[in-house]
Amino acid sequence: MRKKNLKYKVLHLNFLGLLVLIPIVTQAQQQQIRVGYIEYFGTKGIEVETIKKTLPINEGDEVSFDKLPDLILETKEVVKQSIGQPATDVGPVCCDAHDRWMVYIGLPGRNLEVIHYDLPPKGAIHFPAEVLTLYRQTIDLVFESVHAQAIEDRSQGYALSAYPPLRARQLAMREYATRNVALIRRVLNQAVDSYQRAVAAELLGYAVHNKAQILGLVKASRDADEGVRNNAVRALGVLAESRASIAKQIPAAGFIGLLNSGTWTDRNKGGFLIETLTRAREPMLLRLVSRRASDSLLEMARWQEANHAKSARLILGRISGIEENRLQKLVDDDPSAVIKAFAEKNR
Fold first, then answer.
1. Quick check: bond before 95 cis, omega within 30?
2. Is 90 helix (H, G, I), strand (E, B) or coil?
3. Which residues, in sequence order, are bridge partners of residue 93?
4. How far apart are CA 231 and CA 138, in angstroms?
5. What mean pLDDT is reported for the chain?
6. Phi first, then psi: what are they for 35, rounded to 5°?
7. Which residues contact 132 (CB under 8 A, 6 or more apart)?
8. Using CA atoms, how far apart are residues 336 and 319, in angstroms rounded to an integer?
9. Cis geometry, peptide bond prior to residue 23 (ω within 30 degrees of 0)
10. Please, are residues 224 and 117 in contact by the beta-carbon 8 Å criterion?
11. What distances in angstroms separate CA 195 from CA 101, 188, 237, 238, one per listed residue?
12. Helix 335-345 and helix 324-333: axis angle, to 10°?
């Protein structure tokens, strides 16, 4: 049973991640996958090289997709044997521009922040079956939209793909959310089934914008389940991108801790949201992020997959005072210059 649960987790989280990380191509149904990068976070004070020498997988390896649950368990055990403590997370993530997977390994270093999440609810409430079908269809179509290289419009506060089949499903979610927001909130707050809550968090992002929507998503960002948090923080980031007036309604300080989380999806979506909220370059927020999360941002900025590292690089550049147009160019062409500028500013 344990292996079955792990396999579900791998599939579930990667499907959720695909809603944000573009360009990516899913290989989840292929028999073999190739590992492109192995990256680490939570490394402060940890001898990472010691861990690298004993890992059961290396960059460039091909592995069977069905073996991923066993590989996660084995990697956690190897980390524990190497440093005396288990990995906080082992996250296989699909995919880079060459269809290679990445594996993100969380470590219990000094820049790890233990975040206390809410206890899961215990209610039996759930969505009608057709709503879950709509959600699954939407996720499946994300894969096709990536192959079609479709862009995503976030200007209205919710994601709308240029890929017509996916856009139709997203508009259907919008229609459902605007008419059934009371049920969505009840499921999000009361459902014992974390998958139901994850669907609710996604749908709440498509509801009519108001203060209650923001409050509901902020609360969901502290859910015990990382899939729920993933969808909630993603929705907040999309809302923040749509209008500066909405971004100001989101309590940025409460999300900085996600940058130090031991869970990859927390860091990934936390980075997306904080990057969006720092576009206004509010000095107090930049100082707070620098003070609380510099070590973690530097780790993330050095990741080899540019789509995963970009948020951290932009945040560091804004803390360093690099002008925005120049920063955007450096992030793409010379990210090491951003890291160097941050180091010089903080000598």
1. yes
2. strand
3. 102
4. 14
5. 90
6. -85, 120
7. 196, 199
8. 15
9. yes
10. yes
11. 24, 10, 21, 21
12. 120
* pLDDT value of position 267: 97
Q: How far is it, in rounded angstroms, from Cα 347 to Cα 343? A: 6
φ, ψ of residue 123 in degrees (nearest 5): -80, 155
Model confidence pLDDT, tens digit, residues 193-249:
999 999 999 999 999 999 999 999 999 999 999 999 999 999 999 999 999 999 999
What the block records as the tokens of 225 is 């389940």
Please identify which residue in the block is written with the tokens 């508009």: 171
Phi, psi of 191 (to 5 degrees): -70, 130
Q: Partners of 152 in the beta sheet?
A: 161
Residues 6+ apart with CB under 8 A from 108: 42, 46, 83, 85, 86, 88, 262
Say which DSSP state 120 is in. P
Judged on CB neighbours under 10 Å (0-12, 13-18, 19+), 113 is middle
Where do we find the tokens 């190739």?
34
CA 228, 233, 235, 236 torsion-angle sign: positive
- Taking alpha carbons only, the member of 253, 215, 257 closest to residue 236 is 215
> Residue 206, Cβ neighbours under 10 Å: how many?
25
Widest CA span in the chain? 57
Question: For residue 88, what is the DSSP state?
Answer: S
Residues 6+ apart with CB under 8 A from 68: 6, 7, 10, 92
Q: What pLDDT sits at residue 30?
A: 52
pLDDT, tens digit (0-9, with 9 covering 90-100), for 10-58: 433 333 343 333 333 344 445 889 999 999 999 999 999 999 999 999 9
176: its two tokens: 């459902």
93 φ, ψ (degrees, to nearest 5): -130, 130
**Mean pLDDT of the region 147-157:** 89
In this structure, what are the phi and psi dihedrals at residue 186, rounded to the nearest 5 degrees? -65, -45
The pLDDT, as a whole number, for residue 66 is 87
- DSSP assignment of 98-114 equals TS-EEEEEE---TT---
